[in-house]
C-alpha cells in the first residue's frame, strides 16, 4: 500500500530516520508500512512495495525466493545483492530480514524489518580477490607440474589438476589428507626429511618415483619452498613436483653412449700403442715407454671426464690422476694448496692435465723428485683483477738437483707450454730457475672454469700465491 508518513507519526517508526542504513517495515503479504529517510533518498520510486525490481536482473529471482522463504518460515535471513543505482551502474548491499516482536495483546499482523547496508567497496574487494584467486587457480591448473600447498603439519591444503591426476585425488573431493601418505612408500623417508627442512624455513628437494600398475615408473623432482608470514614463521609449504621421467631416460641414453665412446676411444688408444710397438725397430726403446705413458695420461683424462659426464673435473681430482706416477713414496713430497671444488671445463682439464703429467714425469727423471729431499708445491685458485677474475695454477719445484734449460725443445715442451696456451686468453710461464722448475698457467675464469658459484670463495686463497 502507498506510504503515508503523517498517518504513521504515532508509531515510533520515525526513529528509523536516524539510521544511516536503508530500513523499511513490511508485512508478510508484501505490504510496506514505512520506509526510512535513507531508503526514500536512494532514488525516485525506490520507496515502493516493488523495490525488488531495482535488484540486478541476474540476482533478482534468487533474492526474491530467499526472502519469501525466510518470511514464510519466520527465520532471520541475510544476503548480498546488487541494486541498480539511478546514477548508473550497480552497488552492492547487505540485506537483512528480521521479524519484529509485537507487544502482548497487539492485534496488528506480524511485521518484518528489512535493512540494506552499503557494502559496495568491501564486496568489490571480495570479488576482486575471488577473481584473482580463480585466475591463480587456473594458472596452476594450466601447469603440467604437480603443484601442492602443504600445511606445516604435513596435511594437504591445495592441489592443482595435474597433481590430482598424478596422485589419484578427486578434484572436488576436498583436501586435508596427509601429503606423504599419497606418495609411494619408497619416497616417504626422503619426503619426510625435505618436509622437516621446509618447516625450519629452508628450501628442500628430493627425487621421488611413482608407478601405476601396468605402466612404466615415473620420476619426480620435488622442490619444497616455505611460505613465511611477516613474523618469519612458516605458514605453508609450496611443493612443485616436476615429471623428469623423459629427462632421466635421456640421461641414461647419454650415459650409455658416453660409456660406449669411452670404451671405443680407449680401445683406439690401445691399438695406436700396439701399432707403435710393432712398427718401431726396438719396442723396448725409451721413447716407446714415454709415448705409452703419454697415451695412458690421455686415457686417464678421458676416464675422469666420462665419470663427470663431461661437465668438468675438479682441480684436486685432475692433480691426483696425473701425478699418480709419483707413487706413494713421492706423493708425500707433493704439497697441494688451493680452493676446493673448482671445476675445470673439459678442454681445460685435457690440456692442463697433460701438462701436469709431463711436469711430473720430468720431475721424477731430472727435477725435484729425482733425489730424496726435493718437493713439488702446486697452488691454484681464482685471483680478482681489474680486468676480471683469473684462474691461476702454479707448479714449483724446490730442493732438487740444479736444472738448466735444455738446448733443444721437444714434444714434452710443446705439451707443457704451447698446448695449454691454446685455451682462450691463456698464458703460460715455464722457467728453469736455480731452485727448480716453475710453471704457471693463467686464464680468464670464464674460459676455463665451469662453475662460477664455486670459485667465489677461492679469491682469497690465491692472493697469497706470489
Task: Tell me what the structure shows.
A hairpin with a 2-residue loop joins β16 (427-433) and β17. α7 runs antiparallel to α8 and α7 runs antiparallel to α10. By secondary structure, the chain is of the alpha+beta class. It has 14 helices and 17 strands. Mean pLDDT is 80; it is low at 1-10 and 452-466. The chain has helices at residues 37-41, 60-73, 120-142, 161-167, 188-199, 245-279, 286-307, 315-322, 327-331, 346-365, 411-421, 445-448, 452-455, 459-462; strands at residues 22-27, 32-35, 77-84, 90-99, 111-118, 146-150, 156-159, 204-210, 218-228, 234-243, 313-314, 334-338, 343-344, 375-383, 390-398, 427-433, 436-444. The chain has a 5-stranded antiparallel beta sheet with strand order 2-1-5-4-3, with helices on both faces. The chain has a 5-stranded antiparallel beta sheet with strand order 7-6-10-9-8, sandwiched between helices. The protein is elongated. Helices cover 37% and strands 25% of the residues.
Topology diagram in text:
Blueprint: E1 22-27, E2 32-35, H1 37-41, H2 60-73, E3 77-84, E4 90-99, E5 111-118, H3 120-142, E6 146-150, E7 156-159, H4 161-167, H5 188-199, E8 204-210, E9 218-228, E10 234-243, H6 245-279, H7 286-307, E11 313-314, H8 315-322, H9 327-331, E12 334-338, E13 343-344, H10 346-365, E14 375-383, E15 390-398, H11 411-421, E16 427-433, E17 436-444, H12 445-448, H13 452-455, H14 459-462
Parallel strand pairs: 12-14
Antiparallel strand pairs: 1-2, 1-5, 3-4, 4-5, 6-7, 6-10, 8-9, 9-10, 11-13, 14-15, 15-17, 16-17
Helix pairs in contact: 6-7, 7-8, 7-10, 8-10, 10-11
Amino acid at each position: 500500500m502507498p506510504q503515508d508518513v503523517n498517518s504513521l507519526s504515532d508509531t515510533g517508526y520515525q526513529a528509523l530516520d536516524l539510521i544511516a542504513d536503508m530500513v523499511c517495515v513490511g508485512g508478510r503479504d508484501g505490504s510496506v508500512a514505512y520506509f526510512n529517510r535513507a531508503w526514500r533518498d536512494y532514488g525516485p520510486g525506490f520507496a515502493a512495495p516493488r523495490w525488488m525490481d531495482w535488484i540486478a536482473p541476474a540476482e533478482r529471482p534468487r533474492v526474491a525466493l530467499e526472502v519469501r522463504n525466510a518470511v514464510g518460515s519466520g527465520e532471520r535471513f541475510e544476503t548480498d545483492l546488487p541494486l541498480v543505482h539511478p546514477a548508473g551502474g550497480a552497488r552492492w548491499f547487505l540485506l537483512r530480514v528480521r521479524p519484529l516482536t509485537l507487544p502482548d495483546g497487539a492485534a496488528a499482523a506480524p511485521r518484518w524489518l528489512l535493512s540494506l547496508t552499503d557494502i559496495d567497496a568491501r564486496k568489490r574487494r571480495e570479488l576482486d580477490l575471488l577473481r584473482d584467486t580463480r585466475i591463480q587457480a587456473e594458472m596452476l591448473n594450466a601447469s603440467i607440474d604437480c603443484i601442492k600447498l602443504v600445511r606445516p603439519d604435513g596435511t594437504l591444503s591445495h592441489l592443482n589438476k595435474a597433481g590430482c591426476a598424478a596422485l589419484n585425488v578427486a578434484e572436488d573431493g576436498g583436501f586435508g589428507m596427509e601429503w606423504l601418505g599419497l606418495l609411494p612408500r619408497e619416497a616417504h623417508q626422503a619426503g619426510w626429511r625435505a618436509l622437516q627442512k621446509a618447516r625450519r624455513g629452508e628450501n628442500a628437494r628430493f627425487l621421488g618415483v611413482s608407478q601405476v600398475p601396468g605402466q612404466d615408473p615415473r620420476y619426480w623432482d620435488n622442490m619444497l619452498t616455505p611460505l613465511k608470514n611477516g613474523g618469519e614463521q612458516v605458514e605453508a609449504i609450496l611443493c612443485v613436483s616436476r615429471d623428469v621421467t623423459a629427462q632421466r631416460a635421456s640421461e641414461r641414453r647419454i650415459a650409455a653412449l658416453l660409456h660406449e665412446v669411452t670404451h671405443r676411444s680407449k680401445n683406439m688408444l690401445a691399438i695406436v700403442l700396439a701399432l707403435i710397438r710393432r712398427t718401431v725397430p726396438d719396442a723396448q726403446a725409451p721413447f716407446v715407454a714415454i709415448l705409452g705413458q703419454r697415451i695412458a695420461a690421455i686415457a686417464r683424462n678421458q676416464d675422469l671426464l666420462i665419470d663427470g659426464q663431461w661437465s668438468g673435473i675438479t682441480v684436486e681430482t685432475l692433480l691426483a690422476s696425473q701425478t699418480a706416477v709419483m707413487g706413494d713414496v713421492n706423493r708425500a713430497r707433493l704439497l697441494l694448496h688451493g680452493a676446493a671444488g673448482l671445476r675445470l671445463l673439459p678442454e681445460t682439464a685435457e690440456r692442463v692435465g697433460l701438462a701436469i703429467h709431463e711436469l711430473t714425469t720430468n720431475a721424477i727423471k731430472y727435477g725435484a723428485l729425482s733425489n730424496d729431499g726435493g718437493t713439488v708445491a702446486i697452488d691454484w685458485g681464482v685471483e680478482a683483477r681489474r680486468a676480471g677474475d683469473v684462474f691461476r695454477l702454479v707448479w714449483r719445484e724446490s730442493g732438487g738437483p740444479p736444472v738448466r734449460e735444455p738446448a733443444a725443445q721437444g714434444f714434452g715442451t710443446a705439451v707443457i707450454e704451447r698446448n695449454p696456451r691454446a685455451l682462450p686468453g691463456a698464458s703460460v710461464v715455464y722457467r728453469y730457475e736455480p731452485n727448480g722448475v716453475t710453471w704457471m698457467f693463467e686464464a680468464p675464469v670464464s674460459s676455463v672454469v665451469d662453475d662460477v658459484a664455486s670459485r667465489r670463495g677461492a679469491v682469497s686463497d690465491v692472493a697469497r700465491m706470489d
